[in-house]
């Protein structure tokens, strides 16, 4: 509105002036998201991971991805290691994180972390006061392990270490999937578990009813591998893989030698 002395905004004009910066900011943010998405830097990555990775390894990787690519959304699903290569191959998952995954045509993989296995047992177990524990000391124990078909490479490595120490282990297959259910069982039985050390020590710190102890002679190592499809991949997947590699390097996850087999 204008007269001979001044120019004044109408109510509609004032409203437009107040809202314009907000609208412009929203438009700029939308344009930036579109630019990032067009470059493959935004988007969704579907990640399948083995249960015991969720207590340290997974968190470190997700932190690295968030730092490097804040516009990438990761949808994580808990799966057994034996399931993961097939899910990646069929496209149900974009990336996998598994213990000793079986090779599969059409799926690429590389080691991401080596870590020892550790003994996990109730705090009143006869071995609770011993640290470290030689594998031979497990001869008269019952080992609580997930069935072989769920993580065959991991299972076989435990059996081989026992055989090299001169005995055939007694195995009790534990079919209840949540790892914390295994911890609850160990708290109240005379059985022992041999999970990756990151899981064992996390569990012992969180639950005074169990203890974690180092395993030696021989040390049994677990190999975590990251998997992705051999076919063409999005830039979001490529950036996730690069962030995971950087996370592995910065944490020294491959400082242990890669096991044979």
- Please work out how many helical segments DSSP would assign: 7
Q: How many angstroms does the end-to-end distance come to?
A: 83 Å
Give the integer mean of the pLDDT values: 87
The second-level CATH architecture of the largest domain is: 3-Layer(aba) Sandwich
The Rg value, from CA coordinates, equals 26 Å
Apparent shape: globular
Question: What structural class is derived from the secondary structure elements?
Answer: alpha/beta
Low-confidence stretches: 257-261
Largest sheet composition: 5 strands, mixed
User: What's the CATH class of the largest domain, please?
Assistant: Alpha Beta
Helix content: 25-40%
List SSEs in N-to-C order.
HEHEHEEEEEHEHEHEEH
Task: Give an overview in words.
The chain is an alpha/beta fold and 261 residues long. The protein folds into two domains: 43-114 and 224-251, Periplasmic binding protein-like II (D-Maltodextrin-Binding Protein, domain 2, 3-Layer(aba) Sandwich), CATH 3.40.190.10; 118-219, D-Maltodextrin-Binding Protein, domain 2. Helix content is 37%, strand content 24%. It is built from seven helices and eleven strands. A five-stranded mixed sheet has the order 2-1-3-11-4, sandwiched between helices. It has a three-stranded mixed sheet with strand order 5-10-6. A three-stranded parallel sheet has the order 8-7-9, with helices on one face. α4 (152-164) links the parallel β7 (142-145) and β8 (170-173). Mean pLDDT is 87; it is low at 257-261.
């Amino acid at each position: 509105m204008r007269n001979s002395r001044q120019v004044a905004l109408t109510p509609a004009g004032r409203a437009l002036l107040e809202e314009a910066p907000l609208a412009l900011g929203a438009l700029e943010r939308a344009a930036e998201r579109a630019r990032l998405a067009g470059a493959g830097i935004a988007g969704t990555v579907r990640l399948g991971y083995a249960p015991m990775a969720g207590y340290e390894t997974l968190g470190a990787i997700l932190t690295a991805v968030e730092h490097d690519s804040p516009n990438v959304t990761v949808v994580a699903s808990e799966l057994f290691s034996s399931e993961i290569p097939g899910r990646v191959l069929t496209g149900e998952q974009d990336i996998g994180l598994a213990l000793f995954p079986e090779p599969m045509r059409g799926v690429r993989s590389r080691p991401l972390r080596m870590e020892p296995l550790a003994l996990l047992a109730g705090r009143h177990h006869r071995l609770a006061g011993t640290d470290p524990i030689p594998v031979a000391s497990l001869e008269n124990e019952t080992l609580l392990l997930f069935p072989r078909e769920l993580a065959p490479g991991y299972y076989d490595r435990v059996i081989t270490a026992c055989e090299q120490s001169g005995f055939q282990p007694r195995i009790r297959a534990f079919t209840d999937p949540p790892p914390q259910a295994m911890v609850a069982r160990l708290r109240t039985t005379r059985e022992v578990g041999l999970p990756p050390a990151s899981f064992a020590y996390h569990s012992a710190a969180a639950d005074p009813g169990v203890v974690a102890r180092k395993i030696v002679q021989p040390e049994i190592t677990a190999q975590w591998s990251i998997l992705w499809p051999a076919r063409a991949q999005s830039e979001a997947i490529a950036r996730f893989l690069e962030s995971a590699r950087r996370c592995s390097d910065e944490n020294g996850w491959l400082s242990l030698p890669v096991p044979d087999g």
